[in-house]
Design brief:
about 500 residues, three-stranded antiparallel beta sheet, globular, alpha/beta, Rossmann fold, Serine Threonine Protein Phosphatase 5, Tetratricopeptide repeat, seven-stranded mixed beta sheet, 22 helices
């Protein structure tokens, strides 16, 4: 007995999966849902998938059975230090302040990796802590890793991985933290493995936060590439529960592909290296304040660029009308002297600024670019474009908008700039302007994968299901220009194959 496209049982199945697992399958997903259910039916030893669905709807599954079902409906691919910039944020920005705050007191840190899959992310968090805390053995460290899939949890507990899990790792990293257990297989060392506790948890349930489950008063929650499976309402419910699980000043880290507009509005935002980090509290928390004193030099205040710059429509360049008067804190002057001097050259500043941006050092890029603006020179679209990227990644969205518009007034055919403007507009809640900007990016560069993906999300959010589906199909088509294992440009480490699976999950 096979399914028909309009079979009423599919509607019941979609409702069931949403209620029990929180997995969101729209009617347009039926083709993919049927394929996945057929695989699940075989795993549950049913020869007829429709009878299997009827059995599901009539019976209450055990926790193990639910995990087994979920394993056929979701994707569990990950690797060590995936989306590395989020770990850089922890090690360079968040953890130093938190450690200072707790060092003289209770010396405890609580981390939750929600949707941990096969464990690479949880162990990456443990390794990050060992880098950050020299006397870590004197601390009370809790790293909870949860998933609904028991097969994935068993693999995570074993800590044994193939080379595919180390696709961005160095041989030195593998040698330091793993022992070889067989041909192309490596097991994480006990010191790291023992730092992580694995447990089964269904994020669609309401049994968190809880003291018994170690999901209360958490400092850091990683929940990446999980919320894409939930409906908008499910996203709100889960992110609200995660918010309640955090201690005041705690942070939530999600994947860049998960739209910020679907995260609970209770969260405040921190912008870092192209990431939006969500934190609990209306003001920067104490840990962040501490770390700014230790690691981040005072920022340069730059006047409104529109009043300082004049666009030459003939030569398509920008010239300062008056020298910029920047308010440079005294502690920063010696740093700027490295870049500002008789022997310095504008091209050198721009080269260094580009390298800083690629490394996620946006405050350093801001200093370098402000040094360029201090000098009476004529320059082309490169400076405002770099400033637009820098300001956007620092969360200075109004300034980012201004610099985008300045750069686009010089070069209206820069697809990346239109895409950046769309992201900034979306972050500011102006989805109509974001849609216009992203359409312009695609008009200029028809195979811009991330632009198609963003447009699809914006259209789905606006209730334009057919248009959104078409945009996702265009994104998939554009991915054919890349190799399966290639890292997609501007995606922060997502492979083409993984991004394809994400789109198919949303769209099929």
């Amino acid at each position: 007995m096979s399914f028909k496209h309009d079979d009423p049982i599919l509607s019941s199945l979609r409702d069931y999966l949403s209620d029990i697992l929180g997995l969101y399958f729209m009617e347009k997903h039926d083709k993919m849902l049927i394929r996945k259910i057929e695989h699940a039916a075989t795993a549950f030893e049913f020869s007829n998938p429709k009878i299997f669905v009827e059995w599901l709807l009539k019976n209450k599954l055990t926790e193990k059975q639910l995990g087994k079902l979920a394993s056929h409906l979701t994707i569990g691919e990950t690797y060590f230090f995936r989306e590395k910039k989020s770990f850089d944020f922890l090690e360079q920005i968040y953890l130093p302040g938190l450690i200072l705050k707790r060092y003289a007191a209770s010396k405890w840190i609580r981390i939750w990796c929600a949707g941990c899959s096969t464990g690479e992310e949880a162990y990456s968090l443990a390794i990050t802590l060992t880098h950050s805390i020299p006397d870590i053995k004197q601390w009370k460290i809790t790293i909870l890793a949860t998933d609904i899939n028991p097969v994935l949890l068993d693999k995570a507990k074993s800590g044994i991985y193939s080379k595919w899990s180390f696709r961005t790792s160095t041989p030195e990293f593998i040698q330091k933290y793993f022992t070889k257990t067989g041909e192309n297989h490596f097991q994480i060392i006990p010191e790291i493995r023992n730092m992580v506790t694995f447990s089964s948890l269904n994020l669609a349930s309401d049994n968190y936060p809880s003291i018994e489950g170690n999901t209360q008063s958490v400092d850091i929650i990683f929940c990446r590439n999980v919320l894409i499976y939930f409906s908008p309402e499910g996203n709100l419910q889960v992110s609200n529960r995660l918010y309640n699980s955090l201690i005041n000043g705690g942070i939530l880290v999600v994947s860049p592909v998960e739209m910020s507009s679907l995260i609970a509005p209770k969260f405040s935002k921190i912008y870092y290296a192209g990431y939006t980090i969500y934190y609990k509290g209306s003001q920067p928390n104490e840990a962040m304040a501490d770390v700014r004193q230790v690691m981040i030099k005072p920022k340069i205040t730059i006047p409104d660029p529109v009043s300082e710059l004049k666009i030459n429509q003939t030569t398509h360049s920008i010239r300062r009308t008056e020298p910029m008067q920047e308010h440079i804190p005294i502690p920063l002057l010696h740093t700027l002297n490295v870049y500002v001097g008789a022997e310095s050259h504008i091209d050198d500043y721009l080269t260094k600024a580009e390298k800083s941006i690629k490394s996620g050092l946006f405050e350093e890029a801001e200093k370098l670019l402000s040094s360029v603006l201090k000098q009476s020179v004529t320059y082309n679209t490169k400076v405002p474009k770099l400033l637009a990227k820098t300001k956007a990644n620092l969360g200075k969205l109004n300034e980012a908008t201004t610099w985008c518009e300045i750069a686009l007034s010089i070069d209206k055919l820069d697809a990346e700039l239109h895409y950046l403007l769309a992201i900034v507009m979306h972050e500011q809640g102006n989805d109509a302007a974001a849609t216009d900007a992203i359409k312009m990016a695609l008009y200029i560069q028809p195979h811009f994968v991330l632009a198609h993906f963003l447009l699809g999300n914006l259209e789905l959010k606006a209730g334009k299901t057919a248009s959104g589906k078409k945009s996702f199909k265009n994104a998939l088509s554009s991915l054919s220009y890349y190799d399966h294992n290639e890292i997609l440009p501007e995606s922060d480490g997502l492979s083409v194959g993984r991004f394809r699976e994400i789109i198919q999950t949303i769209n099929n």
